[in-house]
Recover the amino acids of this structure.
């Protein structure tokens, strides 16, 4: 996962988990700019949440489970 790799590398560079998380989430959000400002804000928020979960657990499986739940809910909302 690109964001988790960025967080690890930025932690080395900045010597701060918080700074690494914020910069990685900002970069993650920036490449969603084609979705407009709403997409950037959503991506930034999710990047911070998923990035924080990664910083706490240092595992990808909680992110995969969370993303699967998010996708399931989004699909269920489309079916209505």
């Amino acid at each position: 996962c690109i964001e988790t790799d960025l967080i690890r590398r930025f932690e080395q560079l900045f010597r701060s988990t918080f700074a690494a998380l914020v910069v990685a989430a900002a970069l993650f959000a920036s490449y969603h700019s084609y979705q407009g400002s709403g997409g950037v804000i959503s991506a930034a928020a999710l990047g911070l949440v998923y990035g924080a979960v990664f910083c706490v657990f240092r595992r990808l499986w909680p992110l995969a489970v969370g993303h699967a739940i998010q996708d399931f809910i989004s699909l269920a909302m489309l079916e209505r």
